[in-house]
Amino acid sequence: MPTYLDFHDDVTALEDVTEAVKAMEMSAASHVQRERRVTTSMQEYVDVVVGLTAAFARRYRLADHPVFMPKSDGVDLLFIVGGERGLVGGLYTELVRRYEREEKKYGRIVAVGRRSAQWLVDEGIKPDEVMAASEGSPDRQQSAALAKYALDGFLNGDLRSVDFLFPKFVSLSVQQPEIRAFLPFVLPHEIDPGTAADLPGWPVLAPGRSAVADGLLRRYLDYVVFGVLAEANLSEFAARTVAMEEAGAQAEREIKRLRLRYFKERRRFMSQKQAESFFALRTV
Asked: Which tens digit of pLDDT belongs to each residue from 249-279?
């Protein structure tokens, strides 16, 4: 039977754990603020790219670019975007459940993030390929690599379509798994790639209209991927913040329970010692 000293040791150990959990919660919360600034600044840049693309589309026809062309052959690819961190099992479980509802559609899976990839394997889903996710904020090099991987496979005919499954940030306590179509690409509603006539005259674009259109669309696609990675990163930190907050609250409740047991056992022990001392004195 545990003594009051055992309960005291348990309380001390749990208090140490609580301090660590609070530190992790504060760290995750600070990352949430930083990632929200990243997504906001990224959206401002995307708005500029959208404006440039819209201006280009008003004068030059974009609909003939191969990124808009539906494919009849090839494999349907799904990127499942998670992360490299733990303590967000609920978030990964929601991603798995969302994938299971669409599982029959996809012939190839690429997991982004080794920790989330391991979660998929534990759930009986084996990715065809695993790509590392960024330890911190996503960077352009990573988003460009993913966009190039998808675009090269789509343009050479290996892939029929490319989608991204990722946790979309709704609020600090709510992250929803979302599947976002990537290729064949669909421009925002404010850009119509098919109505403009291919007008002659100024401005003269170097090295040529098709090269400029290709570069502009590739840059646009890079930042669509960057937006997905940023959303997933933000959602993961938000989920960790909430998880650590709940873990801290649970630890505080357990500390209160153990302290109550500690005081009860200590009082019982002291009463027993006093009674033994009293009876010992009476027998002397």
From this structure: 887 888 888 788 878 877 887 877 777 776 7
142: domain CATH number is: 3.40.1380.10
Rounded Cα distance between 122 and 259, Å, is 38
Q: Give 257-264's long-range contacts (Cβ < 8 A, gap of 24+).
A: 258/7, 258/10, 258/11, 258/14, 259/7, 259/11, 261/7, 262/4, 262/7, 262/8, 262/11, 263/4
The answer as to whether 27 is a domain residue is no
In a domain? residue 107: yes
Angle between helices 89-102 and 114-122 (to 10 degrees): 60
pLDDT per position as a tens digit, 117-152 = 888 999 999 999 999 887 777 778 888 899 999 999
**Residues β-bridged to residue 79:** 110, 164
Of the chain, the percentage scoring pLDDT greater than 90 comes to 25
Can you give the length of the chain in residues?
Answer: 284
pLDDT at 55 over 60: yes
Burial class (CB in 10 A: 0-12, 13-18, 19+), 283: exposed
pLDDT at 265: 77
For residue 143, the enclosing domain spans: 65-190+205-236
How many domains would you assign to the chain?
1
Rg of the chain (C-alpha set): 28
